[in-house]
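Bumping with the actual sequence this time:
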Amino acid sequence: MIPGVDHYRVKVDGPSQLRVASQQWSPEGISGRMKAELRDGNGNVVARSHIRGSDFILQHSLLPGRYTLEVQGTQGARQRATQQYYLTTELR
């Protein structure tokens, strides 16, 4: 695992549609960009997020299996050591 990257596990029991959207929360007013990748059980990237301002949206159709969502925030050219954000997730 990569420092500064948050990992979320997702188990899918049947064919589904996944939608994840981020929203940054920074009381210090520090902003940056958020991005995400979805990996299958073998570690292959199956989806990448699309930028929406400084946040992201990731949408992808999934088959049954185990997946890992990797979320990363950057500030300028640097990776942020701490990230404060909300994720809205739908799995249908």
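The tokens above came from a reply further down the thread. The radius of gyration is 13 Å.
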